Automatic annotation (TrEMBL), chain A:
Subcellular location, record wording: Cell membrane
Biased segments, Basic and acidic residues type: 409-418
The protein, known as: Cytochrome ubiquinol oxidase subunit I
Pfam families noted in UniProt: Cyt_bd_oxida_I
Keywords linked to the UniProt accession: Cell membrane, Electron transport, Heme, Iron, Membrane, Metal-binding, Transmembrane, Transmembrane helix, Transport
Organism, as annotated: Micromonospora gifhornensis
Gene this protein is translated from: cydA_1
Protein family per UniProt: Belongs to the cytochrome ubiquinol oxidase subunit 1 family.
Domain of life: Bacteria
TrEMBL record, chain B:
Matching PANTHER family: CYTOCHROME BD2 SUBUNIT II
Keywords: Cell membrane, Membrane, Transmembrane, Transmembrane helix
Residues that span the membrane, as ranges: 6-30, 42-68, 80-99, 111-135, 155-179, 191-212, 224-244, 251-272, 300-323
InterPro entries: Cyt-d_oxidase_su2
Domain of life per record: Bacteria
Mode of membrane association: Multi-pass membrane protein
Pfam families noted in UniProt: Cyt_bd_oxida_II
Similarity comment: family membership: Belongs to the cytochrome ubiquinol oxidase subunit 2 family.
Protein localization: Cell membrane
Protein name, per record: Cytochrome bd oxidase subunit II
Length: 418, 335
């Protein structure tokens, strides 16, 4: 067995599961901010119920985002100690900033938000959700600063074989950064919007008693997803130029730029295979197909007029069938970005085989199998719970239930001390 | 500057042991054969603090990566099995606590509670071994890499891991006497006192095993400081026991919190000026200065992160303040 391959598989597995959950987190929290703001301004109880129902799904989904995120953070040190040794001075900074400035606060605010219903003033409670959303975006931003540096190392100099930071602003103006950030954020909004639309569609096809409530969230979901797919496509295609310029080997094939770069690498690092596996680009093609397919949302949008989308029924079914597509697309896009920079961990600076920790393959295999089973099992459990809570409807979500109301989901009554 | 960042790293890891410590302590106590309502009440006593507690670990590892990249790689990769165990425990607890009440059936909730027990145990054992591993030195070779895993399997590491389990259990029980309604706190008090005493015994045992360990004696740069802090730790636990007897739960909790923060200070101060002491080649030991990121990185982090520290600590304090007091009557039940 090969420690390097095992470590790469483990990172790919963890990052993929992480991405499936954080995309929903980022998308849904944005919509939740809108819903709770509407509740505060209008005082309409429908918005309170919408906030509780979608908030419940958001909070369940959040669990796996944290769990996989923590495992990824530790993997850098566990499996890729060469990364911290050679480029930690530069790459570590945005990650440290992310944990302190973003994630630390995000989780603190979320804990207060969950337990702050019926306890905090409404304005304070809403402010906490704004805090959760802002720090979630900040988190995505700093992670992409770090990732973009791996795609296109800038603002550093190498002394004694170790990279040192020379210009932090170069990390923030990295050509690999901003379009990718826009692309990821709009993909998250697309995913959140599609989830909201599809779950609402399911309830509407089954003649729910909560027609008004799910009609509202269907409309919000469809409008969000439609606007987001436009942004996803724009940011996606806008990336091709800049990525091709900074990573000529990414999209396979041969170009004069790529050949010159490979010749340069061969001279500096010795001969080797400096092209990414073909797999990366096959996935990219599928992702673009999905992107065009979801563009059909623009045809569904006009059907919101006079509720034709509900009266015709079949658009509701289309939305439900399409729900897996954004999830598949975010994974494929991520694979294209990450596999496309192989064999480098930091493009043109540090190869993956230089970054691997000197860990016995059997130990690495234990870690890979153990954590893949653990996180995979938790992910499936989480989706089952999400599906059940989505199907249970908005009658009585546990989130935001008044303390005086006996918990309907408990098999026995709580004693007085709770 | 390196010392300030090292202190900050210690602050966040100690903060994690104190705050995550009562999560795990409450988690371990779910193993008792109590009725489902009591188990749920215990988890909701942690309630609003839970999400804000575990992030201290994430922040500590963030600082470790940003400010001490070399230490990050060698410490985590060099303590591989222990970190894997701790990490699996952290994941099981975070998923278990947040998801256990989402299914409605009693057996599913009981199963999740067992997951939380196992997770809490793994987390405490794992971090105990990591801390002990630091204190007994690591096989860091002249090429800069820590190689092998067998160095972790020593009597001292086992004793330290068990001591940390006993410490978090005592801390969790003390937390519950502070936080649950008075009648429930009274029920728990005798157990809390027993656990605190057990923890004092376990810490004392680990200290003695450490004193007899050649590796610990060689690695310790300031043995007197280490012994003094270990004595302080036991003293804090005895204070906690007395305070529990006098129904001063706040004082008792402060004392067990001190007891959980002290191991981090003990390891840092005993090894200073080293972060990692090599057992194979004294020249391969890693000082804190060598482990730190280069000056421009530390300056940048200083400008960006340090001004935000008051906000981080302030919002955590706000959480503790808003949800202070016993969970009587109006406390929300969610976990």
């Amino acid at each position: 067995m090969d420690t390097l391959l095992l470590a790469r598989l483990q990172f790919a597995a963890t990052a993929s599961v992480h991405f499936l959950f954080v995309a929903v987190t980022l998308g849904l929290v944005t919509l939740l901010v809108g819903l709770q703001t509407a509740w505060l301004i209008t005082g309409n109880p429908r918005f309170e119920r919408l906030t509780r129902f979608w908030g419940q799904l958001y909070v369940i989904n959040y669990v796996l985002g944290i769990a996989t995120g923590i495992v990824m953070e530790f993997q850098f040190g566990l499996n890729w100690s060469g990364l911290s040794r050679y480029v930690g001075n530069v790459f570590g900074a945005p990650l440290a900033i992310e944990t302190l400035v973003a994630f630390f606060l995000e989780s603190t605010f979320l804990g207060m938000w969950i337990f702050g219903w019926h306890r905090l003033r409404r304005g304070v409670h809403l402010a906490l959700l704004y805090g959760v959303a802002l720090t979630a975006y900040a988190s995505a931003f700093w992670i992409l600063v770090a990732n973009s540096w791996l795609q296109n190392p800038v603002g550093y100099e190498v002394r004694d074989g170790v990279a040192h930071l020379t210009d932090f602003s170069a990390l923030l103006t990295n050509p690999a950064l901003w379009m990718a950030f826009g692309h990821v954020v709009s993909a998250a909004l697309l995913t959140g919007g599609m989830l909201m639309a599809a779950v609402s569609a399911w309830h509407l096809t089954r003649g729910t008693a909560d027609f008004g409530l799910f009609r509202t969230s269907l409309r919000i979901g469809v409008v969000t997803a439609t606007l987001a797919i436009g942004l996803v496509q724009s940011f996606g295609f806008a990336q091709f130029g800049s990525v091709g310029a900074i990573q000529p080997t990414k999209f396979g094939g041969t170009s004069p730029d790529a050949e010159a770069l490979i010749a340069d690498w061969t001279a500096r690092f010795g001969p080797g295979d400096y092209l990414p596996p073909v797999l990366a680009n096959a996935g990219l093609g599928f992702m673009i197909l999905i992107g065009f397919g979801l563009g059909l949302l623009w045809l569904i949008l006009p059907l919101l007029w006079r509720d034709w989308i509900i009266r015709l029924r079949f658009p509701l079914w289309l939305l439900m069938i399409a729900l897996p597509l954004p999830f598949v697309a975010v994974i494929l896009g991520w694979i294209a970005r990450e596999v496309g920079r192989q064999p480098w961990v930091a493009y043109g600076l540090l190869r993956v085989d230089q970054a691997i920790s000197p860990i016995d393959p059997w130990l690495m295999a234990t870690s890979l199998i153990g954590f893949t089973l653990l996180l995979g099992g938790l992910a499936v459990t989480n989706w089952v719970l999400l599906a059940r809570h989505a199907a249970a409807g908005a009658a009585d979500p546990a989130l935001g239930r008044p303390p005086t109301q006996p918990p309907a989901d408990d098999s026995r009554t709580e004693p007085a001390f709770v | 500057m390196e010392l300030a960042w090292y202190a900050l790293l210690g602050l966040f890891f100690a903060g994690y042991l104190v705050l995550g410590g009562f999560d795990y302590g409450v988690g371990l106590l779910l193993a008792r054969r109590t009725d489902p309502a009591r188990r749920r009440a215990a988890l909701n006593a942690v309630g609003p603090f839970f999400l804000g507690n575990e992030v201290w670990l994430v922040a500590a590892v963030g600082i470790l990566f940003g400010a001490f990249p070399v230490l990050e790689g060698e410490l985590l990769a060099g303590s591989y099995p222990a970190v894997l165990g701790a990490l699996a425990g952290v994941i099981l607890v975070t998923a278990g606590v947040q998801l256990r009440s989402r299914p409605a059936s009693g057996w599913a909730r009981t199963a999740w509670d067992r997951v939380i027990v196992v997770g809490s145990l793994l987390a405490a054992l794992g971090w105990g071994v990591v801390l002990a591993g630091l204190l007994q030195g690591v096989p860091r070779h002249p090429d800069g890499h820590v190689v092998g895993v067998t160095h972790l399997f020593t009597p001292f590491a086992a004793a330290a891991a068990l001591a940390l389990v006993a410490l978090v259990a005592a801390h969790g029980a003390t937390f519950l006497t502070l936080r649950l309604p008075v009648t429930e706190a009274d029920r728990l008090r005798p157990l809390a006192r027993r656990l605190v005493l057990t923890a004092a015994g376990a810490v004392g045992t680990a200290a003695v095993v450490g004193l007899f360990s050649d590796r610990v004696r060689v690695a310790a740069q300031r043995p007197a400081v280490g012994v003094l802090l270990a004595v302080g730790l036991v003293a804090a636990l005895l204070v906690a026991r007395t305070a529990l007897g006098r129904r001063r739960e706040g004082v008792a909790f402060a004392a067990t919190a001190t007891a959980l923060a002290l191991p981090v200070l003990l390891v840092g101060a005993t090894l200073w000026p080293y972060a990692l002491v090599s057992t194979v080649d004294p020249a391969a030991s890693l000082t804190v200065t060598e482990a730190a990121a280069s000056a421009p990185t530390l300056r940048l982090l200083g400008w960006l992160a340090v001004p935000l520290l008051p906000a981080l600590l302030g919002f955590q304090a706000m959480c503790l303040w808003i949800f202070r007091g016993r969970t009587e009557g109006r406390a929300l039940v969610y976990w």
